[in-house]
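2024-03-11 09:14:02 DEBUG pipeline.ingest accepted 1 chain
2024-03-11 09:14:02 DEBUG pipeline.ingest length=474
2024-03-11 09:14:03 DEBUG pipeline.predict start
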Amino acid sequence: MSSVAQDSRTTSGPAAASYDMGQYGPGRPITDWEPENELFWRSIGHRVAARNLWIAVPALLVAFVVWQVWSVTATGLKDVGFAFSTSQLFWLTAVPGLTGGTARILYTFLGPMIGQRRFTALSTLVLVVPLIWLGIAIQDPSTPYGVMIAIAALCGIGGANFASSLTNIGFFFPKARKGGATGINGGLGNLGVSAVQLLTPIVITWSTIAIGSAQHKADGTPVHLQNAAFVWVPVLLVLAAVAWFGQNDLKVASTPFSRQKIIFRRKHNWLMTWLYVGTFGSFIGFAAALPMLIKTTFPDYSIATYAWTGPAVGALARWAGGWIADKWGGARVTVLSFVGMSGSLVGVITFLPSGGDGGSFYGFLLCFLAAFFFSGIGNGSTFRQIPVIFRGTHLKGLAEGTPEYARALKQAEMESGAVTGFTSGIAAYGFFFIPALLGSVAVTSAMWGFIGFYVSCTVVTWWFYARKGAEAPS
């Protein structure tokens, strides 16, 4: 539409009448959405987009809690009588990474088909099931291992919410603000990793909120492991209701899979997947591995005190990465991210115990925090690159305001949303593979392997996106 309605309290006449102002209210489906139109954005769009964003953030944060709950819960099972081997406990923490990554790919395409409001509410609500099952099963040390694996697999679905959330939220914002918006959504959502690692050791000691009987450690200390699951159930119910009644479905973003699948023929889908494996794959993999690394390499230091700090730094840096990428360009910030991660891991290697040298825990931790910081920066910048790349590719040579331009813009938005979700799904497998690699080869060798991978990511980013004359500057 050529005319844009302003706030209904201050505008009247044809401009205001050109939009049905009621359709932008909470819970309503939206058929007209023009975020690139500055008048529309200032008068209507920014308020609606902000409301949808700030409802999505806590829902995504708690979804990450469900995804990561086994990384902390599994460490306490032996203490209360479960006869699982170390290898079995490893698989309980790893299985959610496999199911989360796989479900993300599915959620990538389901989200735009169903709509932001409905999909956020439903995908949040279903997470109540594995939490209730976990809270019941964890009170009985005779619970079969196969049951625990099934619960862990269902908890992994929480990780899938990320793909649908960022894909859907991206449609609400104009190009110039996508990096900041997805940085806030993804970054604050990623704080769920830190939240579960920080709060679980605390809530399992609270008898006042416990449902069911206490378990006892070997020294007689009572704990309530079920609290780690049950405490989040009412939170999920509230967030699902808020999403259902407060968000909007963008009809203009509704896309069947038959149209979305074209991304598998796009070269930049695969290149950006490679880069996002390097950023988010590292973030989520390091978050899962850091507690065990501390326990095995520096056993005198408390996991509960230090392990949550890395994911917190990475999650907060994601917002900064998106914001900086909006100002400086995503590709430049992504190059900085991979260079920074490489240097940080060289520092980690330097401070690891070696031979008769006990290493330096605080040097190790600070370098790991730097690696988390740069991975978070890269998480934000890569997600800013994707819409810029696809807009540039589809709109090249077209005149703004023409029907061809409008069709190409809609196609670019659809493809960038699908690529955003798909890349996040593949990268989520870092949750599984990084701890597995660190558990099967020497830590130093694994770190050098990661550095080599980051070098390849730096070259790809520079060649295709950052250098002068790059194929798709972003």
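2024-03-11 09:14:41 DEBUG pipeline.report Residues 351 and 359 are 5 Å apart (CA to CA).
2024-03-11 09:14:41 DEBUG pipeline.predict end
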